[in-house]
Amino acid sequence: MLVVYAGSGDFALGPLRSLAASRHPVLAVITAPDRTGDRGRPAPRPVRDLAVELGLPVLQPRRLGAGDLADPLRSGAELLVVVAYGQLVRRSVLEAFPRGAVGVHPSLLPRHRGASPIAAALLAGDPVTGVTIYQMDERLDSGPILATGSLPIDSEATTPLLQAALEVVAARLLPATLELMEEGRIVPQPQAEEQATYAPRLSRADSRVSWRQPAEEIERRLRALQPWPGVTAQLGGTEVKLLAGSARLDPALASPPESVVVPTSSGGFQIDLVQPPGGRAMTAAAFLRGRRAKAGQRP
After folding, report:
1. Are residues 244 and 133 located together in one domain of the fold?
2. 55, 57, 116, 191 — which has fewest CB within 10 A?
3. Judging by DSSP bridges, how do beta strands 3-7 and 79-83 pair with one another?
4. What is this structure's pTM?
5. DSSP E strands: which ranges in the chain?
């Protein structure tokens, strides 16, 4: 099966590499245009760089349209594969391919449709997540399901760690699914709309936590919101970034010498590492010593 691949985020790397090594030729790779990052330097372009490494043609339209696909379609492209591309795909593009388009999404659809499914699974405290391959339509992550692969969520998983594990699942599942499609051995299964949940794009507003929240919820946010937008909270009268910590069922238990336990609405939260505004990472106790916090002061 001749394929065009569309992806921009890091999650798209493993599936692209596995597809390029399969018997399904990748005729072109579509990815986001180059952009300027911090301090005027070029922003990372992981999919473009991998495509060049693999010797694959690269297309970087600002908004993908059927006209951008003229050369791959003339070469016999049959299927569009979309993984972490970051754009909704127009109907004209979906209809340009004889076999349509399949999406690869890092959740068990219809749960956590949208831009931040990995973080959403951690925020919700889900015990399991996975990868879904589905036939794309014009709506967001809503087409019939072709294949799934499940993955238990470790109690200490962070978004980067879980993404890396799901990337491995996707890299294995995608070529196998294309084989079954080509053989006509897949019966698409409609998604249960009544079970759908949504994972909107994260923003800086999501980073703020309050000690009025349960400790377990704060821990989930700390694990889920890595590497961006991170988690901030009040400590010693200052808004700091929380870098490491964990929930404690009994806040009265002794903490490690350089950690600080904060009472919450349910249990306590042990703060291990923080980063003050404009400062370096340090232990919570060192930060409070620097602030000359009074003994027993509530953050």
Report:
1. no
2. 55
3. parallel
4. 0.94
5. 3-7, 26-30, 58-59, 79-83, 101-105, 113-114, 128-135, 145-152, 198-199, 231-235, 238-248, 260-263, 268-275, 282-283
Q: Does any domain span residue 297? A: no
For residue 279, being part of any structural domain is answered with yes
Task: State how far Cα 179 lies from the chain centre.
Answer: 26
- Taking the CA atoms of 173, 176, 179 and 181 in sequence, report the sign of the dihedral they define: negative
> Mind listing the pLDDT tens digit for each residue in 225-258?
999 999 999 999 999 999 999 999 887 777 899 9
* Alpha carbons 220 and 216: distance in angstroms, whole number: 6
Q: What is d(CA 17, CA 141) in angstroms, rounded to the nearest whole number?
A: 23
Q: How many domains does the chain have?
A: 2
Does 298 reside within a domain?
A: no
Report DSSP state, residue 179.
Answer: H
With vertex at residue 46, the alpha carbon angle to CA 40 and CA 52, rounded to the nearest 5 degrees, is: 110
Same domain, 119 and 55: yes
- CA within 13 Å, CB half, 287: 26
DSSP 174: H
| Domain membership of residue 120 as a residue range | 3-199
DSSP-assigned letter for residue 11: G
Do 133 and 243 fall into the same domain? no
Q: Which residues contact 269 (CB under 8 A, 6 or more apart)?
A: 211, 215, 218, 219, 245, 246, 247, 248, 261, 262
Can you give the pLDDT at residue 97?
Answer: 97
